[in-house]
Specification:
Elements: H1 20-41, H2 43-48, H3 50-57, H4 59-70, H5 108-129, H6 133-179
Length: about 180
C-alpha cells in the first residue's frame, strides 16, 4: 500500500477528449468572428483594396498557409499532426497593429493600488477637515495640552512677579538699613 493509505494514483482516471469535429467548429467560429471584426474596422477600405478582397475569398487556405510559414517546425513535429486543444499559438503583433489610442485596461494590482491611493487622499481630506475619529481625538488632545501650557505659563509669570516683588522688597530693606 502506498504512503498515505491510498490505493492507486491519479494515472487511472478517465480522460475526456474533444473530438476533432468540435475543434474544427470552434476554429471556424473564431475565423468567422475575426472576419466580422475586420469588416467592421475597415468596411470602406476593404472595398477598394484588391488584396483584402482576395484574402477574404481565400481566407481559409491563406490562414493555414500563414500558420505553416509562421511556425518553424522542429524535429519530428513536421511529420506528426498534433491536435491539442490546450496548445496556444503565440501571435506576435506588429507595431503598426498596436492600438495605442484605445483605453488601456489595468491589471487587478494596478486597480487596487489606484483605489488605495484615492482612499488615502479622501481620508487625508476628511482628517484635515476634522471629520474623522482620529482627527477629533487629536484636536481634543491638542486642546488639553494648550490649557496645560497656558496654566504653566500663568504660574511661571506669577512666580516671576513674586520673585521681582521679593527682590524689590529686599532692596528696600537693604537701603533702609544702610540709611540708619
Amino acid at each position: 500500500m502506498p504512503k498515505g493509505g491510498r490505493k492507486g494514483g491519479h494515472k487511472g482516471r478517465a480522460r475526456q477528449y474533444t473530438s476533432p469535429e468540435e475543434i474544427d467548429a470552434q476554429l471556424q467560429a473564431e475565423k468567422q468572428k475575426a472576419r466580422e471584426e475586420e469588416e467592421q474596422e475597415g468596411g470602406e477600405g476593404a472595398i477598394g483594396d484588391p488584396k483584402k478582397e482576395k484574402k477574404s475569398l481565400d481566407s481559409e487556405e491563406s490562414d493555414e498557409d500563414d500558420d505553416d510559414y509562421q511556425q518553424k517546425r522542429k524535429g519530428v513535429e513536421g511529420l506528426i499532426d498534433i491536435e491539442n486543444p490546450n496548445r496556444v499559438v503565440q501571435t506576435a503583433k506588429k507595431v503598426t497593429q498596436l492600438d495605442l489610442d484605445g483605453p488601456k485596461e489595468l491589471s487587478r494590482r494596478e486597480r487596487e493600488e489606484i483605489e488605495k491611493q484615492k482612499a488615502k487622499e479622501r481620508y487625508m481630506k476628511m482628517h484635515l477637515a476634522g471629520k474623522t475619529e482620529q482627527a477629533k481625538a487629536d484636536l481634543a488632545r491638542l486642546a488639553i495640552i494648550r490649557k496645560q501650557r497656558e496654566e504653566a505659563a500663568r504660574k511661571k509669570e506669577e512666580e516671576r512677579k513674586a520673585k521681582d516683588e521679593a527682590s524689590v522688597a529686599g532692596k528696600r530693606l537693604q537701603s533702609l538699613s544702610l540709611n540708619k
